[in-house]
Automatic annotation (TrEMBL), chain A:
Name listed for the protein in its UniProt record: Amino acid/amide ABC transporter ATP-binding protein 1, HAAT family (TC 3.A.1.4.-)
Cited CDD domains: ABC_Mj1267_LivG_branched
ABC transporter domain residues: 6-247
Superkingdom of this protein's organism: Bacteria
GO molecular function: ATP binding; ATP hydrolysis activity
Keywords: ATP-binding, Nucleotide-binding, Transport
Gene Ontology CC: one annotated term: plasma membrane
Protein's organism: Salipiger thiooxidans
Record InterPro entries: AAA+_ATPase (IPR003593), ABC_AA/LPS_Transport (IPR051120), ABC_transporter-like_ATP-bd (IPR003439), BCA_ABC_TP_C (IPR032823), P-loop_NTPase (IPR027417)
Entries under PANTHER family matching the protein: ABC TRANSPORTER ATP-BINDING PROTEIN, CONSERVED COMPONENT OF ABC TRANSPORTER FOR NATURAL AMINO ACIDS-RELATED
Automatic annotation (TrEMBL), chain B:
Entry annotated with the keyword Protein biosynthesis: no
Membrane topology note: Multi-pass membrane protein
Pfam families: BPD_transp_2
Molecular function terms from GO: transmembrane transporter activity
Name of the protein this chain belongs to: Amino acid/amide ABC transporter membrane protein 1, HAAT family (TC 3.A.1.4.-)
Protein species of origin: Salipiger thiooxidans
Keywords: Amino-acid transport, Cell membrane, Membrane, Transmembrane, Transmembrane helix, Transport
GO cellular component assignments: plasma membrane
GO terms under biological process: amino acid transport
Subcellular location: Cell membrane
Transmembrane segment boundaries: 20-41, 61-85, 97-122, 142-162, 191-213, 225-252, 273-296
From TrEMBL, chain C:
InterPro entries per the UniProt record, alphabetical: ABC_transp_permease, LivM-like
Transmembrane intervals: 38-57, 62-80, 100-119, 126-149, 172-190, 219-240, 260-285, 297-320
Membrane topology: Multi-pass membrane protein
Name of protein: Amino acid/amide ABC transporter membrane protein 2, HAAT family
Alphabetical list of CDD domains matching this protein: TM_PBP1_LivM_like
Compartments it resides in: Cell membrane
Keyword Transport: no
Keywords per UniProt: Cell membrane, Membrane, Transmembrane, Transmembrane helix
Amino acid sequence: MTEPVLATHGLRKAYGALQASDGITLDLRPGEIHAIIGPNGAGKSTLIAQICGALTPDEGRVELLGQDVTAETTQARAARGLARTFQISALAMQDTVLQNVLLGALGASGRPWRFLSRVSKDRDLRATAEAALEAVGLADLAALRTAELSHGQRRQLEVAVALTLRPRAFVMDEPMAGLGQEGSQRLTVFLDGLRQQAPILLVEHDMDAVFALADRISVLVYGRVIATGTVDEIRRDPLVRDAYLGDGA
Amino acid sequence: MSPILLAEQVLNGLQSGVMLFLMAAGLTLIFGVMGLINLAHGALYMVGAFAAATVAGLTGSFLLALVAALAAAAAAGALVETLVIRRLYARDHLDQVLATFALILIFSEGTRWVFGSFPLYLDVPDALSGTVTLPGGIAYPLYRLALIVIGIAVALGLWWLNSRTRLGIRIRAGENDREMIAALGVDISKLYTLVFALGAGLAGLAGALVGAIQSVQVGMGEPVLILAFVVIVIGGIGSIRGALIGALLVGLTDTLGGVLLPELFRLFIDPASAATAGSAFASMAIYVLMAAVLVWRPTGLFGGRA
Amino acid sequence: MSREGLVNAALLLALVAVPGWALWADAPFTITLATRAVIFALAAVGLNIALGMGGLVSLGHAVFFGIGGYAMGILASHAQNYTPLMEWPFEIAGTKSMPVIWLVAVLASGLAALLIGLLSLRTSGVYFIMITLAFGQMMYFFAISWPAYGGEDGLSIYVRNGFPGLNTLDPIQFYGLCFGLLCLVLVLHARLMRSPFGLALNAARQVPERVRAVGLDPVRLQLVALVISGAITGLAGALFADLNRFVSPTMLSWQMSGEIMVFVIIGGVARLFGPVAGAGFYVLLEHLLGGVSEYWQIFLGLFLLLVVLFGKGGLVGVLAGRARHD
């Protein structure tokens, strides 16, 4: 088996009496899309927050490229090659579309301490930024204020910013949310190709997309992974049918 | 230093602490319920002091003066809330800071216009003048002792209001969930005016009570306001209990620092320099306390959110 | 040229034309007023970097203004009394040279900003406002109770400090110096806005979680912004003390912090020339209304209230329309 790019071991996190993560162990291997599904309140957001560094687990650890990063900040994990997208778009709305991807490129370059040069004249940053916009199909809108983008375009920009980091692993928090059928089909095709670049840990409600994309699926219920397996295995798993998909599925 | 002197200073610290609490409680309540940072809270303290001095001058009654202070500050608070403040709840903190800074200018210059630049004096009532001898032989001014008692009584009253009355339930509901309280059929804008007037009344009361031992003048409120901010940073925003603990800590640190630091410096340097250096550093003591709390617990001793 | 560009050019022109006219008409008081406006503008440009770009609502910028003022006062008073600043471990003499004083003012206020920032940036929002206000008050009371440099009475300097090749006692030459520094700092601010640092800082104000997610630390960006901001306001403080040949704790007071913020807001926050418009307008209002009524700040208060409640974008915003982003 190849070394996992990203792994969690026995993550536990409680809010008072509520056990939001109850010993979560999973991994993300090179070249794969690993989808996390589960009903609302299953602890998906808490899991992502711990993987990306916004929350510290009570117990357990997070490993990135074989290194224990449990104690590291969000920015340190990003610098190691972890790129995330946000469920609710976290973009600089007052800035242009180009500036948002430039920010990603700047973060990846690790050289923000330049005070007098023009960021838009930095060829390397621009090339990275424009390539990312090109990849998600936003190149024509580069000069637009981000606040003027449609919801779907903001989702695309989220992915573009993640691309500029040239990451070793993606963590995507419901990238399809609110996209509509056509939009999510297009994004599905795009993510399908992206896995060659870096593996994707995909939290998603859109089951069509999950079943189309995922190499493996983990089902999270009440803070526990009740099953991990291929699409077919998950579809057939009686526990999953019972707990999550319901009898009708 | 003699134990008696020390005990006296501890009492002074408590006294200034409970008066600070009256200010800080209103501020923290207003922030907790409406999410508003109110720089004009010190102006309401001043309004209370001026109302008390005026009424005491006209009637000679200290009790009436206190009632006037409460009423005038609460009325000014309600007026300002209705005209200006309620437009600020949905704004960011910068707008709140600027608008309430503008209110300070208007209140201060307006008061100067009406009353002039000379300080007014508010006398301690006869019934509370003089000193009492406490157990242990400490002779202490009766009025200051009364301030401590009043402060504690107000703290208890607030606790009762907050935990035992319908208004308290609504206030706490308003802190947690604005939609919820509106859904319950409570008139939210009336509740906000009431809470603001309550905070203003407490500030006015503090202004009148302290006005009797200091002079009543324009600009008296802002130094107290900033001390109250230090109290809130230490205690944690939105927490009345934090405001009480923070106010007592600040009052005691300020008073005892002023006495003990020069003594401490005397151990190392000559008495004259020790006195000046000691008092200079004592003026910084509460801010050092605040910095220490920030390093230890950035959201204050009893604060939950940033 | 964009509308904002035209407004900016008009403001620059006014800063040349008004003192130029005053020189021709032999009205030195007008030159002094213009100098005051330029120095206030400089202090406000400092705040605008922290506030407009970094979103840091600092109500403690008087600390930096005052430290700059005291840097001038302390160095010059030692020079005029021929007493060394310190003798051990090595001797440091006072100085009457503006460039040296400026350097000390910039370094000292930058250092103060670093220390205050390290503590206050542990929190955010309304805590940050209260904490900066509190540290301002701390410096104010310290200056009052520390008797070595005048305490409450402040420090007077007999003769304005010197600048190589200029006669600083001549109002128009001193004005020229201050104006030159303002232009320099405006150029610096304009470049900061478009720099990689500026891009990251702008984003840190809007979406700190995004900045972290691309591998940058928003708090460090804000800390650096606060240090730059404090250093510029400190430079303005040194000039202000030199203009008045006097420094006192008033420069450290919370009212001063409030006024610096008012310059920025009246003019237009995050606009390059907002502080220039705001400070100019303030000095004009102070001069015109101050002559009419002793209580002119009532009108300032009412005006500020109107700007906050109804006039988003300040003077530059009203004149030039919504901000362009490129």
